[in-house]
Amino acid sequence: MVLEHPAYGRLRQVTPTAAVLLADNPGKMTLDGTNTWILRAPDSAECVVVDPGPRDKAHINLIAESAPVAMTLITHRHFDHTGGLKRHRKLTDSPVRSVDPKFLHKSTVPLRDGEIVEAAGLRIEVRVTPGHTGDSVSFVLDDAVLTGDTILGRGTTVIDTRDGTLADYLRSLDVLAEVGEGRVLLPAHGPDRPDAAAVAREYLAHRKQRLEQVQAALDVLGADAKPMQVVRHVYADIDKKLWPAARSSVKAQLDYLRR
């Protein structure tokens, strides 16, 4: 039987070198849940784990049972990607690499843009793609790109304005539009998509449209309008429960327009 997204608690093969284990943590921000990616060359006994996921004992146990873990990579700091990291380290004793030094294990070197990570028979190119957060990173395989939360399988990404900026995010989308050409999109939330570059271009067009809407709202509300005023004006058609997340993105858009 061929598994389709979403498939909780089952390892679903997506490409010859990438399989996904979907965490059972659905929500407004996580969509169907967090995708933990298990990467390995077809002839490798070991694997690379990307984002162990939330603090969910059953999910972390399944990751450890999938194969010996040669390396663990983190796309960014958010808890739905890193909450299970402590147990994951305990079960696998895997080296952990990330941009943020606080997640490093058995390694003293944070991930760097353009470096090649070699593990489980794979060559994985690191591309630093900030914007969603300041520490966001993507991973490029021969046939796929793992984008973390920078690009999702459906919907759009919220910019965490604690350290993410729209200027960085737009630059990161340009990077992914380039490296994603002809490669499958493997996101941290939502289903995989056949062409990462096409989705990156859709995201860029959407952000341009939103910026135009925010500017139009300022023309009506005044140049000093607060983020939530703009949310009420621009996002009147979406569930109000999503307004706090929209506020974060609007704040990033206002910061961008007011540079």
UniProtKB/TrEMBL annotation:
Q: Which organism is it from?
A: Antrihabitans spumae
Concerning CDD domains, the annotation shows: metallo-hydrolase-like_MBL-fold
Pfam families per UniProt: Lactamase_B, WHD_BLACT
User: Which stretches make up the Metallo-beta-lactamase domain?
Assistant: 33-189
**What's this protein's name?**
MBL fold metallo-hydrolase
**SUPFAM superfamilies the UniProt entry points to:** Metallo-hydrolase/oxidoreductase
Protein origin, superkingdom: Bacteria
